[in-house]
Amino acid sequence: MERGEWAWKRMMMKEMVWSVAAIVVSFMAIIIWQKLWLKPRRIRSILEKQGIRGPTPSFPMGNLSEIKHIQSQFSNLSSSTSHPEHWFHSLFPFLQQWRKQYGSTFMYTTGHKQHLYVGDPKFLKELNRIKTWDLGKPTEMSKNVKSLFGSGIIRANGPHWSFQRNLIAPQFHLSKIQNMVDFVEESTKAIMRKWESIIEESGGKMAEIIIDNDMKELTGDIISKNWMDNPVSMLKHNSISA
């Protein structure tokens, strides 16, 4: 009697374990399905209703295979031609190709992530006016460029982004930018003359130039010239921001 009861308990325990495992697997499958298929499809549907198109994604990699194919095609084209304008699209040739196909605003997919490419100046102007925190940068992309951009406004999110935006926005008013044009042109020409001399010293064909320090020098030169031209205005702005 005891042996039969023990066997029955073991059978019930096995059935319970299998039932729990089936529930967990089903739950995980639903979550994965929602994240990889349902949510991306819902986002694409919303954009399509607004007239925004893009390349058709394939499950589960989206447009990654198409991106690799376009990049390989561009690499072969670049190696067989010497047109200097090709460098402009060498980093993201798929964006240039899709822009020709779908217009200045389109969408594409990498894995389960949906991307909206905006190349319309009017649309970009409207986006720059929006101060909502919902238009933040993806965390995974921000981490990848942290070593390049630090914690500046390019990768900041939330309150940190809002604080930096309010701090620098007054310095980009049209009147102030117009006053800086001459400084920018003068400093940029100096850096370009430096690069040209390096190229001439190497034979006039090609030279490897590390521009990191030069760009820092360029930025500092423009800021210092602007400061010397109008120090009172900058001091007033800094005191208000503080």
How would you sum up this structure, described in words?
The chain is mainly alpha-helical and 242 residues long. The chain has two domains: 5-129, no CATH class; 173-241, no CATH class. It is built from ten helices and two strands, in the order αααββααααααα. The chain has helices spanning 2-49, 64-80, 93-102, 121-129, 139-144, 146-149, 158-168, 174-201, 212-229, 231-241; strands at 105-110, 113-118. It has a two-stranded antiparallel sheet. Strand 1 and strand 2 form a beta hairpin. Residues 232-242 have low confidence and may be disordered.
Give the strand tally: 2
Strand content: under 5%
Integer count of domains: 2
Weakly predicted, low-confidence segments? 232-242
Query: What does the overall shape look like?
Result: elongated
Brief account:
The protein has 242 residues and is mainly α.
Spell out the blueprint of helices and strands:
Elements: H1 2-49, H2 64-80, H3 93-102, E1 105-110, E2 113-118, H4 121-129, H5 139-144, H6 146-149, H7 158-168, H8 174-201, H9 212-229, H10 231-241
Antiparallel strand pairs: 1-2
Helix pairs in contact: 8-9
List keywords for this structure.
single chain, 242 residues, mainly alpha, two-stranded antiparallel ribbon, 10 helices
